[in-house]
Amino acid sequence: MKEEILDRRVRKTRRQLKECLTRLLKEKKIHDITVRELAEMADINRGTFYLHYKDVFDLMDQIKNELIEEVESVLTHHPVPELVARPSLALSELFPLVQENAEIVSILIGENGDLNFVNRLKRIVSDKCLKGWLDLKCSSDPDTLAAFSAFIVSGCVGTVQYWIESGMKESTEQMAILTEDFILKGIRVLENPA
Question: Taking 80 as the threshold, does the pLDDT of residue 182 lie above it?
């Protein structure tokens, strides 16, 4: 029972720190954020912060790693042949993840975002799903597949950026279907909206 209460407090403190860091990142670069201001904003002492993280960069790294792990988990949950027929199966799980973490995702993939995070994300999507999908569907040379993979993955990241920046008006399911249509049908989606 005591351990459960402690775990709940730990989760609450970490969640508060993540939320405060996200708010501060909207105003300034991570290099300009101090542990002191983060702890004050989260209403904890600095010692408590250091129980969880080495510094502000460690907190940021853990946030990014958790997001990457969640994306990987979704992608590995679906076998490649299943995704060949319906990419929206994974996308319908990824868009709610984006929605739930919209503020930090917006910061990470936005104009002044973290290029390393974006590249890691692109590499994971490409490695976990797109390469297998392309291997099943295409017999083109490897360079063409690599170019197509880069095009699709960058397009998916761009679609997520658009969705967040435009206020997430479409539902997560609508975005999953729309993105699937972009992947499978390309520009023909605009010619013949169905």
Answer: yes
Dist CA 85 CA 92 (whole Å): 14
117 neighbors 136 (Cβ within 8 angstroms): no
Task: State how far the Cα of 194 lies from the Cα of 191, in Å rounded to an integer.
Answer: 10
**pLDDT of 174 strictly over 90:** yes
Question: Using an 8 Å Cβ cutoff, are 159 and 174 in contact?
Answer: no
At 169, which amino acid appears? K
Nearest one of 57, 28, 23, 63 to 40, comparing CA atoms: 23
**For the CA atoms of 116, 117, 123, 125, what is the dihedral angle to 10 degrees?**
-170
Q: Give the pLDDT score at 127.
A: 79
Q: What is the pLDDT of residues 13-58, one digit of tens each?
A: 999 999 999 999 999 999 999 999 999 999 999 999 999 999 999 9
HSE of 99, CA atoms in CB hemisphere, 13 A? 16
Q: Which residues contact 101 (CB under 8 A, 6 or more apart)?
A: 67
Task: Scan for tokens 């351990």, then name that residue.
Answer: 3
Q: Which two tokens stand for residue 130?
A: 């797109």
Q: Which two tokens stand for residue 66?
A: 């958790």
CA-CA distance, 101 to 111, in Å (whole number)?
17
Backbone dihedral region of 44: left (phi > 0), alpha (psi from -120 to 50 degrees) or beta? beta
